[in-house]
């Protein structure tokens, strides 16, 4: 019988960092089943003790010792949390001290200072990028394409929209996207709006079977979704990208995280200093 | 003079986990300037040694000892990376061993097994959610609203679209969103399409000054953007949400991460087991 381990992500903020790292670590143990619980905004010793109570309850209910990922730093809150019996993995505590020693500074957490994410330059840049990407999805607007960091091109349903949104949301990249359509292949030319921005173009391609399957879900039994048409469009798009010197990648077996990371490498978009 | 510290995020995958945690940690040291470098797909000792070379170059160029966040686990790759002189913060290594001991299992990394993100159930759920959210942005479709995990409501530009996309992308939540418009306030009724789904509704409100400022950027000097009109719409929306028993929050000073986390708490959407 498979036991299900309770897992808690505890943070004085949103807990998204704790959950991201925790999830990556737990993915290394596919033979265990985990039941995750989010515990955000645990910003006082009292709330930490409430949290410890929930951890204890989960231990009793499951008959399993819980695993707790936490980014708390305040010693009183940490002590409150540790009133429960669990495997505690302190994601911040382990690294703050070596960073303080290296930089010769106290961290703001230790000093009791805290600034909301929403105030930061980095955050404003991400929100601007999301708005830009939504306004430049699927070729709907050519205005301000000069502002784009990258312009994704590819046949319909090759993964351009989710990749563009991920680039904007995670990395603050202004990512426009532009479909390559049968008319472009007949004229055998890049859409004229794009020729000025050749240096910003990046192509996505996809396996014909996968493309046909995705298009079938949208428009079952259409010519659009047929394997012959998918094959034809993909070949025509790849010929065009090759001729125009556009870099591209095959999105078939890749996640939007992987696709986005490869694009950033290829177009050499390192994060800005902060 | 402010020195700029080189920072490296090294991973055998996308490095997004390393960057997320690293960024949170460095944000605790606002008095130091950091210059980040992404080093994804470092999946061999050779690539790790190339990386060490870049770390050394950055040290020489900046005159500063670099900081390296890494999620490598393979001992040969770790040894290759450590040929450079830097502060190394091993984000995985520290936690894999206690997890192996607790679970009584080797991790797949240690065992040399690796599955791409793109194959996982969790990933498929996220992509489905993104497609759902895009198809149900700004009230464009009422089809399948029964499938929504949550339906955000609020006046135009109160933050519904970016929040919906973040909920979908980060958490795999099917988040529709629906605007409350002057016609709804005149009729003094919820849009009829929504009345069936009252239990899924969650409201966003926003301060009138901030709303007016955001709307000015879209339509300068319009009645739509005027402070009087913003104030009127916000009051009418809040009255309606109060009367209909819809929970809401004020998005004014909050990031989409914070807004999303609060919504998940309020509607009690814990992640599925995995």
UniProtKB/TrEMBL annotation, chains A, B:
Reaction(s) catalysed by this chain's protein: [pyruvate, water dikinase] + ADP = [pyruvate, water dikinase]-phosphate + AMP + H(+); [pyruvate, water dikinase]-phosphate + phosphate + H(+) = [pyruvate, water dikinase] + diphosphate
Alphabetized GO MF terms: ADP binding; ATP binding; phosphotransferase activity, phosphate group as acceptor; protein serine/threonine kinase activity
Enzyme class: transferase
EC number: 2.7.11.33, 2.7.4.28
Domain of life assignment: Bacteria
Protein name: Putative phosphoenolpyruvate synthase regulatory protein
Keywords: Kinase, Nucleotide-binding, Pyruvate, Serine/threonine-protein kinase, Transferase
Purpose: Bifunctional serine/threonine kinase and phosphorylase involved in the regulation of the phosphoenolpyruvate synthase (PEPS) by catalyzing its phosphorylation/dephosphorylation.
Coiled coil: none
Lineage of source species: Bacteria, Pseudomonadati, Pseudomonadota, Betaproteobacteria, Rhodocyclales
Family: Belongs to the pyruvate, phosphate/water dikinase regulatory protein family. PSRP subfamily.
Residues binding ADP: 154-161
Stretch forming the signal peptide: none
